[in-house]
Design goal:
The protein is α+β, with helices and mostly antiparallel strands. It is built from ten helices and 21 strands. The protein has helices at 17-22, 76-81, 99-104, 113-118, 120-133, 145-153, 221-231, 233-239, 292-306, 350-359; strands at residues 2-6, 11-15, 30-31, 36-37, 50-55, 61-66, 71-75, 110-112, 135-139, 167-169, 185-188, 200-209, 216-220, 244-250, 253-259, 262-264, 271-274, 312-315, 322-326, 330-334, 340-348. The chain has a six-stranded mixed β-sheet with strand order 8-9-19-12-21-10. A four-stranded antiparallel β-sheet has the order 11-20-13-18. Strands 5-6-7 form a three-stranded antiparallel β-sheet. Strand 16 (262-264) and strand 17 form a beta hairpin. The radius of gyration is 25 Å and the shape is globular. The protein starts with a strand and ends in a 5-residue tail after the last helix. The mean pLDDT is 93. One of its GO terms (molecular function) is trimethyllysine dioxygenase activity.
Length: 364
């Protein structure tokens, strides 16, 4: 280990020497244009070690000479921020909410269509709010699929699935999915049967004729998970470990995937994804029968929190208003309805959502 003092904080930093050489940013080792390494790890000697090193007088650079003759320079800020406990995490920016809290912020979630398509500042603010609260609205959008797509593509590329890119649905059974009906849909996330569920979902009600009902509702799964962790840490632990199988079957399609209801970062334990869909659950065969009681006890307690009215934001989506929400965080559902209702929407890949937030300087 190489140990040095970080002058700005006075902390003592320790670095594995092989890691340090692996992160050399000189022109021989790193392509500054492509931001890619230029060597194979096996190109480095097995016995690589620091021969000599010193920090510059201003405390900004570390200069290292290696036993194979190579020389490296490192910005101390880069080394400091590369430590596992110094990385800025997405959930540091996320603000968990219950109904009363999100209603107090409701106006901050709304953006005008004309501003979105014409202003880069507006787009940045929208993405920042989406990271923070997991849900935003674009208002005054002409109620058709073409203009909905225009608004979305101004911000993100659209994800293609077997539903298509932009999809339009009503109660016609075009797919083997409860969403293609007039029935009640409880709180859920989409694509639990995909290996990589969509990161964002977009919905726009184009029309609702000769009927009532169909109100949508949203629950902050992040807040629900934190509440479970506070009140029943044992239940929380179970739901972060037990793989829950999901499945989607229709003619020409058979998707399956298993993952926990609460997915956490394996290093830090931070919540990174919520998965919940009681409709798409497959045969539950990932747990011994003797362990089933504790799982179901945990699952039921979590559902009680999710379905608590204090956590549920219910509203009627109207033509002209697009809602975009985080499918890795926000549970959504709808009440049953009568009459004829047409919705349009799409999915956005998680990696494209995160990329946009990084490019805009919102997250690291």
């Amino acid at each position: 280990m190489l140990e040095l003092k970080y002058e700005y904080t006075g902390e003592r930093l320790k670095f594995n020497q092989f890691w340090l050489r692996d992160h050399c940013r000189c022109s021989e080792c790193y392509n500054e244009v492509t931001k890619q390494r230029k060597y194979n790890l096996l190109d480095l000697p097995d016995d690589i070690a620091v021969k000599d090193w010193h920090s510059t007088e201003d405390g900004k650079l570390l200069k290292v000479k290696w036993n194979d003759g190579h020389c490296s320079e490192y910005e101390l800020d880069f080394l400091y921020n590369s430590q596992v406990d110094k990385i800025v995490l997405l959930n540091d920016l996320r603000t968990p909410w219950r109904l009363s809290e999100i209603l107090a912020k409701e106006n901050d979630l709304k953006f005008k269509f004309t501003h979105v398509v014409s202003s880069d500042v507006c787009v940045k603010n929208l993405v920042k709010v989406l990271v923070q609260y997991g849900i935003v609205f674009i208002q005054q959008v002409p109620a058709n699929t073409t203009m909905t797509e225009m608004a979305v593509r101004r911000i993100f590329p659209i994800m293609k699935t077997f539903f298509g890119e932009m999809f339009t649905f009503s109660d016609a059974p075009d797919h083997s999915d409860t969403a293609y009906s007039k029935d009640y849909l409880g709180s859920h996330t989409d694509n639990t049967y995909f290996c990589d569920a969509a990161g964002l979902q977009v919905l726009h009600c184009l029309q609702h004729l000769n009927g009532t009902g169909g109100e949508n509702f949203f629950v902050d799964g992040l807040n629900a998970a934190y509440e479970l962790k506070r009140s029943h840490p044992g239940y929380f632990d179970i739901l972060t470990k037990v793989l829950v199988p999901a499945e989607y079957i229709e003619a020409g399609q058979h998707h399956k995937h298993s993952a926990p209801l609460i997915c956490t970062d394996p290093v830090r334990g931070d919540i990174v994804q919520l998965r919940l869909n009681v409709y798409d659950r497959a045969v539950f065969n990932t747990l011994p029968q003797r362990e089933m009681p504790k799982f179901y006890e945990s699952f039921r307690k979590f559902l009680q929190i999710v379905q608590d009215p204090v956590n549920k934001w219910c509203l009627k989506l109207q033509p002209g208003t697009i809602v975009i929400f985080d499918n890795w965080r926000i549970y959504h559902g709808r009440h049953s309805y009568t009459g004829h209702r047409t919705m349009t929407g799409c999915y956005i890949q998680r990696t494209d959502f995160m990329s946009k937030a990084r490019v805009l300087g919102i997250i690291d």
